[in-house]
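Hey L., structure's done. Input below.
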Amino acid sequence: MKKTCRRIGWVLMGGVLLLAACASMLDEETAALKVQADQAAHNKEVVHRFIELFMKGNWQEDLPKVIAEDCVIHYPGGEDVVGLQAIMQNWANTFGALKEMNVTPLAEMSEGDLLIDFLTFEAIYDGEFMGRQVSGKKTKFGS
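Output:
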């Protein structure tokens, strides 16, 4: 009878060790998920702050407050724009003639240091577009 009790004791002890190891792994996974969630939340805060500054109309001054020098913007179907100065030049060309800008976030996805935003832009165009005078015309584009 003693042999049986010893075997059960070892099985139970092994189960306790296994459960302890599982709990330790669960704690590590939980900590890693919390780090990812914190990174995603931070990224979203930065983008929301940028959208707020962008709509104020002073984005040229405010962009360096929220965009890192080595930031990369990935445009769908286009080339990446790399670095703060390149982004500012690109956006001056793209958004320079747009006044009274309104940006509406439609959806966001975040993982690690990546953030994907689906946005709709509404503005009033100021100047010519492809040789035609379109000042005062409303425009809407985006996702």
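The first strand starts at residue 72 and ends at 73. Residues 2-142 form a domain with the Nuclear Transport Factor 2; Chain: A, fold (CATH 3.10.450.50).

-- N.
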